[in-house]
Amino acid sequence: MLKTVRIHNFRGFRSFELNNLGRLNLLVGTNNCGKTSVLEAIQLLCSRNNLEPLRDVMKSRGEYFWDERKRERELDIRHLFYGHDIEPGSEFSVLGVDGNSEEKVVATVGIRRIRRHYDSSSDNSEQLKIIDDEIFDDSPEDFKVLDFAIKWIHGSEQESWDRPLSNNGGLSDEYIRRLTRIGIPKNIETKTQFVTSSALTTEKMIELFDQIVLTPEENLVQEALKTIESKIERIASVGSEKYRRSEAREGFVVRLSDSHQRVPIGSMGDGIWRILGLALATVGAANGVLFVDEIDTGLHFSTMSDMWKLIWETAKRLNVQVFATTHSSDCWTSLASIASREDTMEDGITIQRIERDKDVGVVFSEREIIIAANRGIEVR
Fold this sequence. Notes:
Layout: E1 4-10, E2 13-18, E3 24-28, H1 35-46, H2 52-60, E4 64-67, E5 72-76, E6 91-98, E7 101-118, E8 126-130, E9 142-154, E10 157-164, E11 170-172, H3 173-182, E12 192-195, H4 202-210, H5 216-226, E13 232-237, H6 241-244, E14 252-256, E15 262-264, H7 270-284, E16 289-292, H8 304-318, E17 321-325, H9 329-341, E18 349-353, E19 362-364, H10 366-375
Parallel strand pairs: 3-17, 3-18, 12-16, 16-17
Antiparallel strand pairs: 1-2, 1-6, 4-5, 5-11, 6-7, 7-8, 7-9, 9-10, 13-14, 14-15, 18-19
Helix pairs in contact: 5-7, 7-8, 8-9, 9-10
């Protein structure tokens, strides 16, 4: 479990550090102070050679452009670096510390030398060939492109990945999809789940639900839904492909105690959909890390304490570390009620306030959270 995180040259952070992290960590701060960027940095650190989370984040932010010639999307990696600019030697890093062990991810931009050569037997006579530095001889047929490399370091283990960038400085989205599809990058990753402010997709929620059917975790999800609607007796997924590809709140039905009809979950309101996604993501992050952006989205303040209790108890039982963000006063004060009732000292609950132009987060421990809530002291 991470206790310290140090971020260098990533997005809006020249240098930033979080300390005294616990099992459950709520990030607060003003708009555009970098709360979501911190979640993304830690997820990249924990991805352990899986580039799919990075790809998903950049697509959701619109950080890509369309290459008309290749007819494919390219990720614009400049926006991952402080100042939104890259050149040979640009680098960002994220370091995580847990006790005496460290893990680190480092991304660098370098020079890749490529040789253009010709094959008279091929219809496409002009081809490109990557060559090693030691045989680079400044031939007129050689030219240079920017190269993007990422290295994950965990103790004595290292995993690395690199790829030449296009003339526009883009990283091929199709290349990353191919890596994901054949399973190369997922061999040693830490399990992570990222819930955005707009919730998980229907496809992802059905996938997570199918993994827990007829297990104790299925009962946990049903109990979570009852915190919003006590009449819910059972939930089931509708495994049609048309629902998996849907952008709407579809793919699930529930049974209510006062009805014999199957009720589509879309009829139950935003809160049910949000709490279902949170429950599924927490279970799906077992022995890993859960990230939730704007965790209170769609939830009434009266359900906040139950939501925190669900996440706290599940995180302890399944060994999940949680990082979430909020702008809501109800959200953080509800967390104080959990800190005051539960035995949290061993694992820890913290609020981490991020302030612009400050390179260290302000930490509030369980005791300080409780005092601030009781005295009406603002921590955001």
